[in-house]
Amino acid sequence: MRKSYTLAEIAERFSLRLSGSVAGDCHIHGIATLVGADANTISFFSNVTYREQLRQTKAAAVILKAEAVMDCPVPCLVSENPYLDYAKISALFAESTACVAGVHATAVIDPSARIAATASIGAHCVLAADVVIGEGATLGAGCSVGRASVIGARSFLHARVTVYHDVKIGSDVVIHSGAVIGADGFGFAPNFAAGDAVGWQKIHQLGGVLIGDRVEIGANTCIDRGALEDTIIEDGVIIDNLVQIAHNVKIGKCTAIAACTGIAGSTEIGQHCTIAGAVGIVGHLRIADGVHITAKSLVTGSISEPGSYSSGTALTKTAAWRKSAVRFLQLESLFQRIRTLERHQDHS
After folding, report:
1. Together in a domain, 193 and 283
2. What is the pLDDT of residues 260-295, one digit of tens each?
3. What's the CA gap between 133 and 107, in Å, rounded?
4. Sign of the torsion angle spanned by Cα atoms 103, 105, 108, 112
5. Is the pLDDT of residue 169 over 90?
6. Do residues 260 and 121 both lie within one domain?
7. Range of the domain at 24
8. Residue 115 C-alpha from the chain's centroid
9. Which of 245, 265, 264 has the alpha carbon at shortest distance from 255?
10. Do 121 and 67 belong together in one domain?
């Protein structure tokens, strides 16, 4: 069923001031970009880059700050924080995730598993011994939950999430399809003694994974179990698709990690950090609270102070980049020449 709200209802529900010549009973069916919006959708303006699009928008109304009202040709929903209010309003038009409580006939459930009466277990799910599924939790089709793992209240596992044994997942957690929680960490000891064919001796991973409340984990992300103690993801952390978190990593509260980032074992990342896409972080580091790391950076040392950090070279034309690459290789010889010249100058 198509969802519809009047502008007056939206303004009242989110404490926004409705400004401009508008009928409060205008029905809104969704949210769109400034360019794509029409007479039945609203949009938002939070980035001055799009001011010209604001001036030309055909939206039913736009969520914006008071100082932008003069640039808006349509009614306004005046907000202190347009982007945040857009995020809240988006929930009105989202696909419902509500599921019917109960266990699908094709699910395979160990007799010792404990499932709350209000939980929903989808088709072809597999729950091992001593699993606990909390009130209102949902497991989409094909999910697998290993021995003694816990899924907290109102948590939602989309189809084909795999949770290994001894994993504890808190309340109101969302995990997207293909994610794997609690697989073995990449732990091996070298064993190349003469005549020994073992090569790499596996270190069995004896810890688990502990995930706090209100965490969101993207599709095909992997969070490995600890070697001895648990890998820990604290409350409010958000993790994008295709992120690799190795054994015994600890991620602090409300940190955000973008796609294709890899974090090596036993690194601790503080609270309220933002890790941009394709960042590499080596193992056994400590990163302070409030750190931002820009895209494709390689972090090879601990960071003790908050702030923004970057590594690598900025994009440029290939010809210029090749010249720079050659000059990078010449830096050591240039340094030695300069030091030699300085010594001669000191002796002169």
Report:
1. yes
2. 999 999 999 999 999 999 999 999 999 999 999 999
3. 14
4. positive
5. yes
6. yes
7. 5-93
8. 28
9. 245
10. no
Which residues partner with 308 through β-bridges?
Answer: 292
- Going edge to edge, which strands form the sheet with 298-299? 108-109, 126-127, 144-145, 162-163, 180-183, 222-224, 244-245, 262-263, 280-281, 298-299
Of 93, 126, 153, the one marking the end of a domain is 93
Residues 6+ apart with CB under 8 A from 68: 45, 51, 54, 76
- The verdict on 147 and 200 lying in the same domain is yes
For the stretch 286-340, pLDDT in tens is 999 999 999 999 999 999 999 999 998 888 999 999 999 899 889 999 999 999 9
The SS3 assignment for 285 reads: coil
Name the phi and psi angles at 52, rounded to 5: -65, -35
**Helix, coil or strand: residue 287:** strand
Q: pLDDT tens-digit profile of 184-235?
A: 999 999 888 766 667 888 999 999 999 999 999 999 999 999 999 999 999 9
**Is the domain of 250 the same as that of 346?**
no
Measure the CA–CA gap between 28 and 320, rounded to whole angstroms: 51
Q: Which helix (H) or strand (E) holds 341?
A: helix 318-347
What is the pTM assigned to this prediction?
Answer: 0.91
For residue 103, the SS3 value is: strand
What is the spatial order of strands in the sheet that 138-139 belongs to? 102-103, 120-121, 138-139, 156-157, 174-175, 216-217, 238-239, 256-257, 274-275, 291-293, 307-309
Are 252 and 172 within one domain?
Answer: yes
User: Tell me: the pLDDT tens digits for 74-132?
Assistant: 999 999 999 999 999 999 999 877 788 999 999 999 999 999 999 999 999 999 999 99
pLDDT of amino acid 199? 83
247 tagged catalytic = yes
Q: Are residues 43 and 119 in the same domain?
A: no
Residue of 247, 292, 344, 347 with catalytic role: 247
Cβ atoms 145, 121 nearer than 8 A:
no
